Amino acid sequence: MNREAIFSTLFAMIAPMPALVTTSRRLKHWTDIPSSEMPAMILAQGRQIVEAPAARGLPTKWQIEAMIYLYVHTIDQAPGTVINPILDTITSILDPDPAGHPQTLNGLVEYARIEGAIETSEGALGDIEVAIIPVRMLAF
Predict the structure, then answer these.
(1) Which of 3, 26, 31, 72 has the greatest number of C-beta atoms within 10 Å?
(2) Which of 101, 107, 13, 1 minimizes the C-alpha distance to 49?
(3) Are 61 and 51 in contact (CB under 8 A)?
């Protein structure tokens, strides 16, 4: 398992989205990003949970978590109208293909998928909308 290859590949798959103005792997608070640099996407590493092999000779399993932070400036628009298309694009990148094969980050992981609740601020922050997308990956 190569952690840096996993995270850099995940970032490389999401960062080129045309809707994004700023992309980073360094977590910043939304107040530290000017509205002119939004929409912003930040990929942050999360927990890494090891599962001991079930039997001798089997590989160690790693549950690797990442959080994708989205910050958008909504101006006079409803927050969902700005952030939903970005969420849909990220979801489509991490969804299984039409044949049901999982996203494997070019074979680096068994799967990379959105797992858990996507949290949104839904306009509670004024003109700034925040979404946090939990990603889970299984690596050997």
Answers:
(1) 72
(2) 1
(3) yes
